[in-house]
């Protein structure tokens, strides 16, 4: 499975509809400070179901919508689409191409879509469960998180490694079962 395309419109500094396509291999995104590199990774995390506005450097979720500049008025809608090549079926849906979209309006209402069909946030989150990617997996390491990992207690670091290896869910299931 791989991310092949990212479409951003009205999200943070990306007022105009922008499409980034990713070839096989490693893609580097470079640019001066404040040019929007972090906004790109935040768009990816947001589309995959990020629910914390603070985790996206905002106060409230509608803060992700383009807030306007001296030359350009604020917008009322942010939209992010991610396209995945799923020929290996790493994502739990029987389709070669998977496209997910998240929209948010100024009043805070949100919409989610999988392959153009309206769905719930829960459906997006469960699509990525155990895939190694997702809104809170360690496939996206933000600024500051590296230090957090280095400075964490050994027990917490173990949790990080277990999550990355995909075995953390079994531990949670085991604990739930033992409690019953
Ligand atoms: P650095 O190299 O410092 O990490 P960066 O390339 O990661 O920089 P970002 O943090 O992605 O830059 O982008 C910050 C820019 O995005 C700022 O100029 C900020 O004003 C702009 N920005 C953030 N949220 C919004 C918003 N809702 N509307 C308009 N612009 C926004
Ligand atoms: Mg940055």
Hetero ligands: adenosine-5'-triphosphate, magnesium ion
Can you count the beta strands? Answer: 6
Strand order of the largest sheet: 2-1-3-4-5-6
Number of helices: 5
CATH structural architecture of the largest domain: 3-Layer(aba) Sandwich
The CATH superfamily name of the largest domain is P-loop containing nucleotide triphosphate hydrolases
Domain count, please report it: 2
Give the class-level CATH name of the largest domain: Alpha Beta
Order of helices and strands: EEHEEEEHHHH
The helix/strand class is: alpha+beta
Alpha-carbon distance between the two ends: 36 Å
Shape: globular
The name CATH uses for the topology of the largest domain is Rossmann fold
Uncertain spans:
none
Write down the Rg.
Answer: 17 Å
User: Into which percentage range does the β-strand content fall?
Assistant: 15-25%
How would you describe this structure to a colleague?
The protein has 180 residues and is an alpha+beta fold. The protein folds into two domains: 129 residues, Rossmann fold (3-Layer(aba) Sandwich), CATH 3.40.50; 37 residues, no CATH class. The protein is 28% helix and 21% strand. It contains five helices and six strands. A six-stranded antiparallel beta sheet has the order 2-1-3-4-5-6. A hairpin with an 8-residue loop joins β1 and β2. The longest helix is centred in the C-terminal third of the chain and has 12 residues. The N and C termini lie far apart (36 Å). The model has no long low-confidence stretch (mean pLDDT 91). Adenosine-5'-triphosphate binds next to α1.
């Amino acid at each position: 499975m791989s991310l092949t395309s990212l479409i951003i419109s009205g999200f943070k500094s990306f007022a105009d509809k922008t499409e980034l396509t990713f070839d096989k291999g490693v893609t580097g995104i470079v640019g001066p400070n404040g040019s929007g590199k972090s906004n790109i990774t935040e768009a990816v995390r947001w589309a995959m179901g990020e629910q914390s506005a603070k985790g996206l450097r905002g106060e409230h979720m509608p803060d992700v919508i383009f807030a306007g500049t001296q030359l350009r008025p604020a917008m009322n809608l942010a939209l992010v689409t991610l396209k995945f090549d799923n020929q290996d079926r790493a994502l739990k849906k029987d389709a070669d191409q998977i496209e997910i979209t998240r929209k948010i309006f100024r009043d805070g209402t949100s919409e989610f879509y999988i392959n153009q069909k309206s769905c719930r946030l829960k459906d997006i989150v469960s699509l990525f469960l155990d895939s190694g990617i997702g809104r809170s997996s360690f496939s996206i390491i933000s600024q500051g998180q590296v230090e957090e990992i280095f400075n964490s207690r050994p027990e917490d670091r173990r949790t990080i490694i277990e999550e990355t290896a995909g075995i953390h869910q079994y531990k949670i299931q085991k604990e739930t079962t033992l409690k019953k």
